[in-house]
């Protein structure tokens, strides 16, 4: 199991990749630990990382638009970019036992 996976702040056990993806697929900003059931929240820095990953995916689209690619090719690039962000994010996620304020 990778060492950079999210760790529950209550039971101190690491979530595996499958558990993390299952939690990310739920809507909202809070998840229950699959190991102890305690509610966990993403840290503010995790949410910043997620926003940066999405920004980079969107920015890469501009490069492809200037290359005058077809709509199908641009749609493929968008799809691949966002799927990659979704698959990479579990490695950047850090958890907290409380909802952090941005300020």
**What portion of residues is helical?**
40-55%
The span between the termini is 34 Å
Total beta strands: 3
- Biggest sheet strand order reads 1-2-3
**Uncertain parts:** none
| Radius of gyration over all CA atoms, rounded | 16 Å
Number of helices: 3
The secondary-structure class comes to mainly alpha
Topology order in helix (H) and strand (E) letters: HEEHHE
> What does the largest sheet look like?
3 strands, antiparallel
The shape is elongated
Mean pLDDT across residues? 82
Number of domains: 1
What's the topology here?
Elements: H1 17-24, E1 31-32, E2 39-42, H2 44-66, H3 71-92, E3 95-96
Antiparallel strand pairs: 1-2, 2-3
Describe the structure.
There is one protein chain. With 103 residues, the chain is mainly α. The longest helix has 23 residues, at 44-66. It contains 3 helices and 3 strands. Strands 1-2-3 form a 3-stranded antiparallel beta sheet. Helix content is 51%, strand content 8%. The chain has helices at 17-24, 44-66, 71-92; strands at 31-32, 39-42, 95-96. 12% of the residues are buried. The chain has one domain. The chain crosses the membrane at residues 50-68, 74-93. This is CXXC-20-CXXC protein. InterPro entries: CxxC_20_CxxC. It comes from Sinobaca qinghaiensis.
What labels describe this entry?
3-stranded antiparallel sheet, mainly alpha, 51% helix, 103 residues, 3 strands
Quickly describe the structure.
By secondary structure, this protein is mainly α. It contains 3 helices and 3 strands, in the order H-E-E-H-H-E. A hairpin with a 6-residue loop joins strand 1 (31-32) and strand 2.
